[in-house]
C-alpha cells in the first residue's frame, strides 16, 4: 500500500508540475498580449481621444490580468503547501485521498483561470477591433465633412457671383 501511495503521490506531483508549466505559459501569453497592446497604442498616430480610449482598454485588461496572476500565485502557493503536506502524510492513506481531492479542485481552478485568461484575450481583441472600426468611422466622417464644406463654399461663391451679376 505504501509503495502504491508513493507512486500515486509521485504521479500527482508530476501532474502538478505540468499544470504549473501550463499556468506559467498562460500568464506569459497574457503579459505578452498586454505588451502588444501597449506597443500598438504607442505606434499608432491617434488623436488624444483615441489614445485615451486605447489606454483605458489597456488599463482594464492589465488590471484583469494582474488579478488573474494573483489568483495563479495563490494557487501555486497552495500547490506547494499540498506538496509539502503530501510528503509528510505518506503514512496515512486517508490524508492522501484528501490531498488528491484538493489537487483535483486546484486543477479545476487552474483550468477555470486559464479559461478566464482566454476570455480576456478575446475581449481585448474585440475591443481592439472596435477601436479600429471607430477610428475608420471617424476618418470617413471627416472626409464627408470636408466634402460638405467644400460644396458649401462653392455654393456660396456661386450665389455671390449670381448676386453680383443681378
Automatic annotation (TrEMBL):
Keywords from UniProt, A to Z, are: Coiled coil
Q: Name one GO cellular component term.
A: cytoplasm
Q: Which domain of life is it from?
A: Eukaryota
Does the keyword section mention Coiled coil? yes
The chain's coiled-coil residues are 58-165
Keyword Coiled coil tagged: yes
Q: Which GO terms describe its biological process?
A: cytoplasmic microtubule organization; cytoskeleton-dependent intracellular transport
Question: A GO molecular function for this record?
Answer: dynein light intermediate chain binding
Protein name per the record: DAPLE protein
Lineage of origin: Eukaryota, Metazoa, Chordata, Craniata, Vertebrata
